[in-house]
Amino acid sequence: MAEKTVKVKITSAIAIAGKIKTPGTTVEIGEDLAKNLISRGRAELAKGKAAKAEGDLGKMKVADLKVIAAELEIDGYDGMNQAKLIAAIEEARDA
Q1: How far apart are CA 56 and CA 48, in angstroms?
Q2: For 27-69, what is each residue's pLDDT tens digit?
Q3: Taxonomically, which superkingdom (predicted)?
Q4: Quick check: 92 and 72 in contact, CB under 8 A?
Q5: Contact, 68 vs 20, CB < 8 A?
Q6: I need a surface site. Which of 1, 22, 32, 47 has the fewest CB within 10 A?
Q7: Global pTM?
Q8: Cβ contact 7:38 at 8 Å
């Protein structure tokens, strides 16, 4: 029998299955992992349209984007503007 899955909204940058998930990102994960993340304040249950959409990097502050870029080990992130950070993060996630 397959494990029940739950849609959660990430509230703090974390890695799931080797990929960085940023605050605001909605993911569908196993119930046990969801309970763990929610109990540690790293996620909350997704609601309404948020359950269907990924987080929007464009709404994040440059400082937060730089934290994600550092976690993804993106070279030269410190001198990037918001648009370049977003492009680099999306490229790194797709790699």
Answers
A1: 16
A2: 888 889 988 998 899 998 887 543 433 457 888 888 888 888 8
A3: Bacteria
A4: yes
A5: yes
A6: 1
A7: 0.50
A8: no
What does the block give as tokens for 66? 């730089």
pLDDT tier at 76, thresholds 50, 70, 90: very high
Question: What are phi and psi for residue 36, nearest 5 degrees?
Answer: -60, -50
- 56: region left, alpha or beta (phi > 0 left; psi from -120 to 50 alpha): beta
Architecture of domain 1-55: 3-Layer(aba) Sandwich (3.40)
Unique residue bearing structure tokens 């509230």: 11
Residue identified by tokens 């974390």 is: 14
Residues in the chain: 95
